[in-house]
Amino acid sequence: MTSHIPLSDTVEIRVPLQGIAVFPAGLPRIPGGWTEREWVIQGRSFRLILPATPDAFLDDADVHAAFERDEYMPYWAYLWPASLKMAATVLRSAWPSKADVLELGCGIGVVGLAGLTQGLNVTFSDYEPVAVELAVMNARRAGYSNAQGLVFDWRQPPNRKFSLIWGCELLYEDRNHQPLLCLLRQLLAPEGKVWFVDGGRMHAEAFWKMIPTWGLSCQLFDENFQTLAAPRVGKYQLFEIRHA
């Protein structure tokens, strides 16, 4: 069982005014370079390496070519505001000891890192190999040697089971909904649970309506873990999904 402490609008998230330029060994050169920044979430300090200027990817020839091939966008390079709130929610909840977590679309890894601080075994996953390398590096730098990485396409999930699956800001395009639901049905352990956090995107309702057709059930919660009757636009919401 997971217990929850309400998440108020005054979640302690302190963001520094500027980062520090870094040149991390083991990571490739990227448009705009790398930086290091610190966030304090629920009293815990998270010092992370991340892309210094994510918008610089939008002018990169390789990104343009990848978009032409498969509509790829470098979303992993951005730290989305909802991920900080999801990390706070993870930190304010109690979890089964050493449960296996798969984080989908891990980006720089802040949500999975919050899970590691809670004693969970986290596998960071993303379509972009650099994102997985970065998330694992951030975890290892924080002292978590048990962090794992997994690169895969949601349309071709691995043959594994996880008791917890997390994802933040994944519902931005309708074309992703069916692959995500197919993936959940395959990768989620029989008694497992999914947390998808959404910042209130317009496509979230379409995803919510599809969930029962895939043999899954869903409860919606707001930032204070109060039940929602339906998805909302422009506000944080948490989808808790299980096998029906």
Structure description:
- The chain has 244 residues and is an alpha/beta fold.
- It has a single domain (3-243), classed as 3-Layer(aba) Sandwich (Rossmann fold).
- 25% of the residues lie in helices and 30% in strands.
- The strands form three sheets. It has an eight-stranded mixed beta sheet with strand order 9-8-7-10-11-14-12-13, sandwiched between helices. Strands 2, 3, 4 and 5 form a four-stranded antiparallel beta sheet that branches. A two-stranded antiparallel sheet has the order 1-6.
- Helix 4 links the parallel strand 8 (121-126) and strand 9.
- The longest helix has 13 residues, at 129-141.
- The chain is globular and about 45 Å long.
- It starts with a strand and ends with a strand.
- Mean pLDDT is 89; it is low at 3-10.
